[in-house]
Amino acid sequence: MRKEVVVVIGVGGMGQAIARRQGAGRTVLLADLNEGVLESLATSLRGDGYDVSTQRVDVSSRESVRSLAETASSRGKVVQMIHTAGLSPLQAHVEAILRVDLLGVALVLEEFGRVVADGGAGVVIASMAGHMSVRLTPEQEAALRMTPSEGLLELPFVRPDAVTNSGAAYGLSKRANQLRVQGASAAWGERGARINSISPGVIATPMGQQELAGEHGGMMRAMVAASGTGRLGTPADIANATAFLLGPDASFITGTDLLVDGGVIAAMFSGRLHASAAS
Amino acid sequence: MRKEVVVVIGVGGMGQAIARRQGAGRTVLLADLNEGVLESLATSLRGDGYDVSTQRVDVSSRESVRSLAETASSRGKVVQMIHTAGLSPLQAHVEAILRVDLLGVALVLEEFGRVVADGGAGVVIASMAGHMSVRLTPEQEAALRMTPSEGLLELPFVRPDAVTNSGAAYGLSKRANQLRVQGASAAWGERGARINSISPGVIATPMGQQELAGEHGGMMRAMVAASGTGRLGTPADIANATAFLLGPDASFITGTDLLVDGGVIAAMFSGRLHASAAS
Amino acid sequence: MRKEVVVVIGVGGMGQAIARRQGAGRTVLLADLNEGVLESLATSLRGDGYDVSTQRVDVSSRESVRSLAETASSRGKVVQMIHTAGLSPLQAHVEAILRVDLLGVALVLEEFGRVVADGGAGVVIASMAGHMSVRLTPEQEAALRMTPSEGLLELPFVRPDAVTNSGAAYGLSKRANQLRVQGASAAWGERGARINSISPGVIATPMGQQELAGEHGGMMRAMVAASGTGRLGTPADIANATAFLLGPDASFITGTDLLVDGGVIAAMFSGRLHASAAS
Amino acid sequence: MRKEVVVVIGVGGMGQAIARRQGAGRTVLLADLNEGVLESLATSLRGDGYDVSTQRVDVSSRESVRSLAETASSRGKVVQMIHTAGLSPLQAHVEAILRVDLLGVALVLEEFGRVVADGGAGVVIASMAGHMSVRLTPEQEAALRMTPSEGLLELPFVRPDAVTNSGAAYGLSKRANQLRVQGASAAWGERGARINSISPGVIATPMGQQELAGEHGGMMRAMVAASGTGRLGTPADIANATAFLLGPDASFITGTDLLVDGGVIAAMFSGRLHASAAS
């Protein structure tokens, strides 16, 4: 009797909350680029009764992602994969963001789409930034959905010289995640599995707190103040939405994105943000 | 001690499933244009132990919707409102569709946004058709979000002469529902409440079965065959998504749309539908 | 790719609600003694988009139960089994109740414990009557847990001459269900599966309504009036508890009973019922 | 618009997991005897986006518990109360255990039963030890349910000289918790609220790990090995069960206990434990 395996890629604030929410009674395979953080979380989870193993991964390398998928598959039935890894615009420059946030997700969707179990499901953490970015043309969207992964960074509108700054690279990557999940839903469906994305708003993770303290912090606070809920998200808000999408009550949901942003995008598009930011 | 009130507008297949899922231990106020169907469901629900009252409503009339909201409010705390009423392109012509499916939702959002309880939540059933329709300009989207309800049917691109057939009227209305929910999330938020929409795919309700038997039935089956799940939805799939959005695990979700379509839209945009429909 | 199979035994009010709640996207195998009711529910579920097959079963016959388990197993992975079949004291005499309600559950637990899939789960619908009955000795409880099924009806305190009326037979059977689930949790656990029972209170199913109209109806209403919730249960209340016990959030729960009775048993044991019944 | 308040008493491993699971979007009032631990968790939760306040409480003092309930009530609608505080047999002697684990729960149920909001709910963390202890007589059970709190420690079978060791005091207290919840469901019900208990098995909290390392650790491991799930519980297992009992799908559940023990009690009563412990 092989145990069910749940893979969590990226062990920041959301990855931790999700690992705790999904991992009980299963083998949890944690993956991150940073081995120190990885071992620290593994130790904490083991203390809480989880069965944990770890593997370093560089999501921008197909070889590294494939190795992770093979490890997962060797441990048991890969019933869940949650991808939370990513670089924020504060942490990296255009090229690194495109490689990790855009290409990385494409590779993970492809390699885990080859090992996910019948009845399994995956969630990719995108961002509400994917709902904000400049409108892409239908042709550009199609290209982001279906271009073979290795060609993604060669698309004219994705090449570093076409993407002017790290914020734009981030928004483009996160929009690409949503589209890539649409494209991947076919391969996942052929295996009897589902794949969706979640687009979080401003979440009070360490990364989120860093952004709130940064140069765009004032704007972010104005966005939150103008939103329907008027509050920051917690990692648990994202873990709860993830649990729903991975769980039995969402068996008819695949290839879609769920915006979990407290109402910020709705406020922006309704023109409320400007009024609020100005006051 | 006043009981909590849950209002279900529209008592077709989805309305029934949602009323059963949400109504236990509360006062259920059912509303529909058709009094016969209304009483029939009320009798069935009472037999199953629900506390039910009914009121006829014409959602295209502000007076009628306001009366419903007042009735709800007089019965207790209006903790949930689910709007499932609508006309399908098979059932009605352009004008009726725009009046019921587009204007009707705007009126319901507005009137219930005045009575919903602190901590309450609402869900509007839109449609995946709202994800398919021709792209609107940002100005048109803004107009659908924010134009006062009484002016909606006067917008140039909404006027019956600009909408060529009932299918187009339906798609436009359902896109408008999603946008209107964004716009309404501010007023609902000011009362401490949340509002979201669900966009169902092909659901095996009586209305859905009628469409599957109609002239577009073959295309609909091809869409389902090409989708990630490869199946029709059940009313329970929509009731489960509704329960999530209304429940405590979605307290950071407002002003958004959740596509529950088995992967059809993802298949369409990934070009899989054509291949499948041709085979 | 074989579909997941969910088996629902007994298609009364609770069986129907549970089949709708658990069956979407799976093969639903419905079983009941009454073929007319079986086909009628199957037709209704197919209309709602479920993939349904049926098989007549006499739960008091090992051969019949084994045949059902084999059918289930031949259709795919048996991920869930929910046993709702039973006779009420109004419907049958002592012998029939013991054969169906006590022996039947033992046979179902045993035969499905041989086919349930790794990661699967089951729920047996017992009754709050199992919490009310005269206290059994530890030896009697042990006998009900562990005696081979074929010997259960031969136990001295279970033999028809020791059980004075159908109400006592019902209470004893339902207490036995809870104990048998404890005993069965070992075999189910060895397959990586879980098994639990639910003890409903007064539920507004057709069977429940019949009891409320019968000679004990007044006492039942007094019990409900004295309870913490003060209301009848709905089939959805039981379906929701079932969904929890079968689902991922209950992966550490096995071999236990969940009382879903609106607070009736608590009221009885707190002496509130007498006061209320007397007024 | 006053925010909803959730009160978590006891901030060990379970209290932390429950606070994170239930607290988003609400005011979280944390209470514990140990102010250092209290402030440490509050700081951590604030970093994750929660709105937190704290108050020191000695649950064995009515005055202290009442003051906590008054603080909760002054902050908003007290929609949830979760009591996780308690002393383990390793940590304390008979008298302290009876005062904190038995009397403390009675006081909390009583004082929060006076402030809980209409529609609210509470959960008391008991223990599987309450399912193991020597059988009480019906008269003793009745006394534990209904004796005024101040008289509980004066009951002949509760007096320190009648309780021979800290393990017995713990088991008696935890059984009393389950019974006291039954008794309290009337007062909570009159306010439109529900109250239940959870009886956890061996959970990998710091307290649980301490017990596993202690003199009874070997026996505890044998119990886990013999159980249906064969594993330790995680704090998330308890938080998930708590979320269910507090949530909308449990609106017909009050005055009951949910055993979340991985199947240990079932294994014990089925005689599997001895076999396993002996091997």
TrEMBL record, chains A, B, C, D:
InterPro entries linked: NAD(P)-bd_dom_sf (IPR036291), SDR_fam (IPR002347)
Name of the protein: SDR family oxidoreductase
UniProt cross-references to NCBIfam families, sorted A to Z: PRK06940.1
Family note: Belongs to the short-chain dehydrogenases/reductases (SDR) family.
Species for this entry: Archangium lansingense
Xref: Gene3D superfamilies: NAD(P)-binding Rossmann-like Domain
Chain coiled-coil ranges: none
Origin superkingdom: Bacteria
A Pfam family this chain is assigned to: adh_short
Keywords: Oxidoreductase
